[in-house]
Amino acid sequence: MIHIVRPFLIAAALAFAGATASLADAAASDCDDPSNLCVDPSDGAKWEPGKQTGPKDKKKRGGSGSISVTIEGGRGSIFVNGRYAGTAPVSGVSVPGGRSDLQVRDGSTVLSSGVLTVPKGASVDITVKHP
Q: What global pTM score does this model have?
């Protein structure tokens, strides 16, 4: 009987560990940033809410990357370096590699604004929460 119970306990423990990891992954993907914008950092991207790029940042840009933006609970227009890039959801929007200004608006309401760093050649997923 011990031989039958032991594999069952091991299987149950592995299933529990997998479920716990899935819950942790789901919790990590939930965005609770006060700026209403979350970036997947796994590809080296960085979000700096409330900041703006300067002339030195523009000189350092090189290559390109891309962004995909979804907005939870609403709609919004995406602006990269002051230029209209599309209405969310958008995917595959080309952006310069390096630091760029990013702003998400719903009409005249700014949902989020700051500096997004996109590594050269990276594809960055962005989630914005509509307040």
A: 0.75
